[in-house]
Amino acid sequence: MPVPILCHVCRSGRYQPESPGTYRCRSCGSPATESMFSVESDERLVVLAGVPQILSVPHGHQVITPDRLCCAPHLGASLSLALRVNRTHPVFRQAEDVGTAEDLLSVLDADERGPWVLSPAQLGVLTRARDVRNALLPSASRQYPDFDAEIRAARTRSRHPRTT
Fold first, then answer.
1. 3-state DSSP call for residue 118?
2. In whole angstroms, what is the distance from residue 41 CA to residue 117 CA?
3. CA neighbours within 13 Å on the CB side: how many for 20?
4. Which sign, positive or negative, has the C-alpha torsion 147, 37, 111, 16?
5. With CB atoms counted within 10 Å of each terminal CB, which end of the chain scores lower, N or C?
6. b/e per residue, 82-116, with b = 16+ CB within 10 A?
């Protein structure tokens, strides 16, 4: 779950974007830049609903962020629909994949706006479910090609993590 960044000066206000890479506190008006926000190696700086926030990303997990050109709930619903295909067409044969799909479905139902932090197992299940859904509903594969590409890239990164 993302955590809003509080103002470094008044310690109670939240920042809002002013221009690319710069922010201003909503309470006291103090300016800040992205370099002022301390983000650890397992965290990402995200802006949700105009508020910069820190998102924790465990090792091996990937962040899937909704595209700004599409309303995020539509993307969350698209992911949920792909996972629900398993209920009518057997996508997953192993019990652990079915469990992972059900867990991911509950995550998406709880937060349809994203960004979502997904494990390698969740990305594998999601990719497989989307492939089946796209085969059953070819028009669905053309709805969000950039989002599909992002999910596939995240799965590739999760399977071949960089060693640091």
1. strand
2. 15
3. 0
4. negative
5. C
6. bbebbeeeebbeeeebeebbeebbebbeeebebbb
Mean pLDDT, rounded, for 24-29: 94
Among 83, 77, 82, 14, smallest CA distance to 48 is for: 14
pLDDT tens digits for range 137-159: 777 666 777 778 888 888 888 87
Phi/psi for 115 (5° steps) reads -70, 155
Radius of gyration from C-alpha coordinates of the chain:
18
Sheet holding 51-56, edge to edge: 3-4, 51-56, 43-48
Q: How many residues does the chain have?
A: 164
46 vs 4: CA distance, rounded Å = 9
Strands (E), 42-146: 43-48, 51-56, 62-64, 116-118
Q: Contact at 8 Å (CB) between 57 and 44?
A: yes
Give residue 9's pLDDT.
94
